[in-house]
Design goal:
alpha+beta; Aminopeptidase; 3 domains; seven-stranded antiparallel β-sheet; six-stranded mixed β-sheet; 10 helices; globular
Amino acid sequence: MIRKYKVTPFNSIFTVYRLLFGVIDKANVSLKDKQSGYSVLKHATEQGWDMAVNGPMFSNGKKGVDPYYYWNLADLIVKGKLNRGGNYSDKGIAFGNPFEGISAYQSTTSNSNGKPVDFIGGAPTLILDGKINMDMKGLTSSFANQLTPRTAIGIDKANVFILVTKGNKATLKMVAEELLKQGCTTAINLDGGGSTAIVADLNYTQGRNVPSAFGIKLKSDARPSKNWIQDAGHGGSDPGAISNGNVEKDYNFEAALYVNGRLKKHGIDSTCTRTEDITLSNTERTNIVKQYKNCISHHFNAGGGSGTETIHSIHSTPDFANTVIDELRNANYPVRPKPVFSKKTSQSKDWYYMHRDTGNCKTTIIEYEFVDGPQTSKIKDSMYRQEMYECTVKAICRYEGVTYKPLRPQEATEKEPGKLYRVQVGAFANKENAEKLKDELKSKGYAAFVKSE
């Protein structure tokens, strides 16, 4: 499987993935020349990759006089298949000579077996022969010393290492030191900055669209089980419904991260379609989801109604959708008059693309509440929302046959993505005093309510 190692130097800015050569089925480059519109995810889905990063550095140098040093993964990649023979070196990464500034392509150069190789370029080198060796020819010192998102790749005798900083920032020296610490004997820098992006276990963090990407397809027995995926509806340039200070995309994102984190606490395999506030096209979203067995697409409703509803495919049974509603009723949350339903087009296809275009994945859409309905003030309270999401967690546990573990009081202090933190201001034996404090807090702009315990 993909083994991800989070490391702690430099303020925990790096995520390093280590993949054994033995688990790699294919590794290659997707090149769209100078075309725009290709995210790393789009490259990955077209190629069927399990893991991908943004492609190499580009320059405007002419053929034969390119000022940058480029490298290729000749030992790893031959026509998309793992190759340990190599044509330039025995280290797995060797010099290449890209033309017209294009640094990833199907080369006319052959390896020792007479087969062409896929090139991937990078500048500068970071590590050679187990030592930091940054050849800065053609590069400025400001480029090396700038704090910016970075992507890099390295190897040792048995592994490929992929490093990303995602939204965090690092200098090239920091990247080189981290890869050396991980055990790399050879490493190169890939295109960073706004291009930095990664697809891993089909989690996607998005940089700008890029014409090239490097990807790896794992052997079937090394792939994750891909059981549950939490889809945070809308996102990025698509805010969803907005009313009275309630922004749907923010609540959707919160719900997906919260449920995902709680499922992991129960030992249930789960991931998210996005872990940042990014824009996903319908195709990008469904291409991720259809790799999984079960999906919840988290949403909040609009249109002035009240209560939660769950929507299932016309080709699926409503059992799980009913379980979610049962848990919400048990927790005294309002539900719609018809809280469980499916909908089809005039051509007898699923109405919603999240059902229609996600293959065999069992997708359930949850519309938690109306941002513009009678509960519009209540849903501003994080605890009100969290307890709704907790009902979804309970429903999944029932569906999976896993014993539900209630939240412990001390978990309110744990730093976990998607977890919400409750601030209790006071507790009173006299309800009148509690109401007085609640009104005072509301007058100052805080969401507050009185709960009997």
